[in-house]
Design brief:
Residues 5-66 form the HTH lacI-type domain. The chain is an alpha/beta fold. The chain has helices spanning 7-14, 18-26, 33-46, 67-71, 92-105, 118-124, 141-150, 173-187, 202-217, 237-253, 265-277, 296-299, 311-327; strands at residues 74-78, 109-113, 130-136, 154-157, 167-171, 192-195, 259-262, 287-289, 306-308, 335-338, 341-343. The protein starts with 6 loop residues before the first helix and ends in a 10-residue tail after the last strand.
């Protein structure tokens, strides 16, 4: 029989006191965020959370007993202000719009919190008037553990955490990317590169999986892992400079691919700008695709071929799932995949001769 993973074992593993581990796992103040994250990571690696009763038992939430009770309550939308996850974002903002419209139709209010520190989150949260929580985008494990302890029903959009059991809503990233790459292959392309970091988000990783799956199914050799442009996004000038050097090296060695498949539209727009600076025409010299179909994807110098993610529909689906979860807390958890469609525009053409 495997030995139980205790707080003392976690403390010994990290070289900290049991007191620090206890505070970190219970969400109490007195431990800085970096230490809390280290404790949570170590607890996960050692198997602490897989043990029975490892989580603090969640308090029972009262069920909806009628329209009058429900109208008095709101849903908390947690969207930590990191990596452009704001209401002003052309991607995340549309998801929040979908949540707001769905809640309004149900006569429910919405409270948005952009706090990303677990200790601050506990201080501002008053769960008594909340039906549940919808998480939008990446949220730290420590913050999600606080939500789990409080006992709020939770649905996450475009993010999941192995330690937090809850319903999730995603675009069907793998299948959509596979269809997009198959379209490029059907156009005659055989030399591809993926641009975007698989560590950036679960959606980016799934899109990369769809990219490689399409190539393998068509018996085309994917780029070597250590040769792929797995950049952390193209928002930072340093990353653009890295891409400029990559393009220059490929031009010099005459090994430039005929198509760049980008993890999202923001990356594709930045890639297109750098390619034009290098004197390359889109799509005559190289085709570029995006993903998400944000408004700017249509307004570029060369409108992007992309995948339309129904962002408002994802928000509405999360509200529907949350209300269903409140009414039926014992039903199995679900991962909801929303279909996404290819939008054909001018950034894809036949491969150069």
């Amino acid at each position: 029989m495997a030995k139980k993973v205790t707080m003392q074992k976690i403390a010994d593993h990290l070289g900290v006191s049991k007191f620090v581990v206890s505070k970190s796992l219970s969400g109490k103040e007195g431990v800085n965020e970096t230490t809390r994250e280290r404790v949570i990571q170590a607890a996960s690696q050692l198997g602490y959370f897989t043990q029975k009763n490892a989580y603090v038992q969640s308090p029972k939430r009262r069920s909806l007993s009628g329209e009058q009770d429900r109208n008095k309550q709101s849903v908390l939308v947690l969207m930590p202000n990191i990596r452009s996850q704001t209401q002003d974002s052309l991607y995340w903002g549309k998801i929040v719009d979908g949540i707001a419209l769905a809640l309004d139709q149900e006569g429910l209010g919405m409270v948005i919190i952009s706090e990303h520190r677990a200790d601050n989150f506990v201080n501002v949260l008053n769960p008594d008037g909340l039906l549940g929580l919808i998480g939008v985008g990446q949220i730290s494990t420590s913050l999600l553990l606080e939500v789990h302890r409080i006992g709020l029903p939770l649905v996450m959009i475009d993010h999941e955490d192995a330690l937090i059991p809850c319903d999730t809503v995603f675009a069907n990233n793998i299948d959509s990317m596979t269809r997009l790459v198959n379209h490029l292959i059907g156009t005659g392309h055989t030399l591809f590169h993926f641009v975007g970091s698989i560590r950036y988000s679960r959606s980016f990783r799934d899109r990369w999986i769809g990219f490689r799956s399409a190539l393998e199914e068509s018996q085309l050799k994917p780029p070597a892992i250590d040769d792929e442009l797995l950049l952390e996004g193209m928002y930072d000038e340093a990353l653009r400079e890295e891409f400029r050097r990559w393009v220059a090296a490929r031009q010099e060695s005459d090994t430039l691919p005929t198509a760049l498949v980008c993890a999202n539209d923001f990356t594709a727009l930045a890639v297109s700008e750098v390619l034009r600076e290098a004197g390359l025409a889109i799509p005559a010299d190289i085709s570029v695709t995006g993903f998400d179909n944000i408004e700017d994807s249509l307004r570029g110098v060369t409108p992007l071929t992309t995948v339309h993610v129904p962002k408002e529909a994802m928000g509405r689906a999360a509200v529907e799932k949350l209300l269903n979860r409140i009414q039926n807390p014992a039903v199995p958890l679900e991962k909801i995949l929303i279909s996404a469609d290819i939008v054909h525009r001018d950034s894809v053409g036949n491969p150069r001769a």
